[in-house]
Amino acid sequence: MGEINIKRLASELNLSAATVSRALRDSHEISAETKARVMEMAKKLNYEPNPFASSLRRQQSKTIAVIVPEVANNFFSLAIKAIEEVARAKDYHVLIYQTHESGEIEASFMTSLLSGRVDGVLISPASHVANKEYFQKVSEKMPMVFFDRDHADIEGVKITTDDYDSAYNATQHLVDAGCKTIGYLAALETLTTGKKRLQGYQDALKNNNLKCQPDLIVSNCENNEPCHSKIKDFISQQKPDGIISSIEELAIPCYYACKELHLNIPKDLKLITFSNLSHAELLNPPLSTINQPAFEIGNEAATILFKMFSKRWYDPNITISLKSNIIKRESTRS
Amino acid sequence: MGEINIKRLASELNLSAATVSRALRDSHEISAETKARVMEMAKKLNYEPNPFASSLRRQQSKTIAVIVPEVANNFFSLAIKAIEEVARAKDYHVLIYQTHESGEIEASFMTSLLSGRVDGVLISPASHVANKEYFQKVSEKMPMVFFDRDHADIEGVKITTDDYDSAYNATQHLVDAGCKTIGYLAALETLTTGKKRLQGYQDALKNNNLKCQPDLIVSNCENNEPCHSKIKDFISQQKPDGIISSIEELAIPCYYACKELHLNIPKDLKLITFSNLSHAELLNPPLSTINQPAFEIGNEAATILFKMFSKRWYDPNITISLKSNIIKRESTRS
DNA sequence: GTGAAAGCGCTAACAC
DNA sequence: GTGTTAGCGCTTTCAC
Asked: Which of A45, A62, B197, B259 sits most deeply, having the most CB atoms within 10 A of its CB?
């Protein structure tokens, strides 16, 4: 078909392809008049430069990759929203990859990106990782920023939240509300993110001289189908009067479990959770949340990635922590 | 740096680049032994073929574009999740673009895709569109599938839901619950999607001999900040005893408005909404919803797009409608 | 079953 | 300020 390329455009204008190329990129070598002529003709012919030819020649893709566990998640979809907006402003394209928490899938994505398909990577790593060397390999080859989640044993630029502090403060909030037996729904345990949250919870208990036994911690729940019954069993057996959930997905089952056990939130059991649920206020009862600034995290991560592209970022190993926001609602009222 | 390409790989094996290329693509011309040698060496050297060179030469990108109004939306994030999974299975890459409901931004994305950057497009169009010719242009050049939203005056392959029926049935449900004055919160009014929902509502009223006045319809709400007060005013002035909301975003303000007006849902006002809120059951009161099969829509749209790629799809102008699911909860109890 | 050579469309180095 | 040329890394004729 009559695919219109730069050669065709050039011949139409009685110019060389080189000149047209330069004019299109607004090079200072080209006269204003020629530029105008080129632009006009390009528009007239609906010329769209072939990005692959350009990328091949220039060795840059104008594309970034975003690797997340899931897209359909209140936190990640907000982060992606922000990332897409930053990329858009820079005329960059955004490739999306979901790992479904699998380190294997993650490794295969990351490895394929070594081909040069993207200029940089934003990643919130999967929780199940075996061999982590691909992180190293990718970051040697191109700018990479971790956001929200990260591994302690991997160096890099990281945008996280104050996981320890917010878990600590949320636990303290439960203590202040009168809780004596506070359970913890663990998740992301292989990640720094999860470890810090757990540590914050444990330290808060200790500093309040409250018991901190292993059987108050529910682990390995996130990927098991019987998560609901596990939590229900936990509540009925351990009889906690407070629960802090380290991810939104584990807090929801608490509502159902309490219904079934005829327990009243917050009277019998107070509940607070890490969450980006936008309508926590409308739940019955309104849910106290530790709200992470998802949009800001995405925005910051992307912004820094672009600074790395243009060498306006020098620290290859820094963690920037944004503040979460604890919103106290009915579910933790004393 | 030691970027390893096909030439290098070939020389390492004492083969020509052509043979290596064929071996990597598992061509039948190549002996099993050679293939094995090539594969082994490719793995050993961590060879990753340059996708731009390949795309340039083969004139195909192994990439699709997904254009949506917003990523951070319960419906779209689920659809994207499905799309990414289908693409993944086909070894395709997924580019994400957000229009923020702007036809201009949409036009600029679509036009840029004419460059050949992607092999096909999945789009849920923006609600504010002026000139629609870019749809035509893109669909002439490559496979394109509309999902969820579409324009009546544009031909194409479309995956939608039974908007008319579900709005009709939801309205009927309100009537059955005893509502006499049923309001409608309109959205997407420029799209077939919005028009059909409105029509379903209106027809249901007529068939039940209920009044169907314009002042029971709240329009132009979605993009205005004062949406909340507009809805609150509507409720206090028109005193509807039932409301059907055509999008989730307009149903939430009803909860707040009712709180402020000291109205009880469902006693004073029954509410049902199109929504993909996963925790509608936990709201206070539990919210009756018209739940669209977001994942299935994304899955179906992507699956058909790939069929179009391989010419296993022939109808260029068909609308496939998936069934929504009306879930009756406390908010519409009589 | 394998190799040589041309070319996808663009851009950068080098001429003038 | 513009043109000529070479080449990015791959695939695909066409030879043999």
From this structure: B197
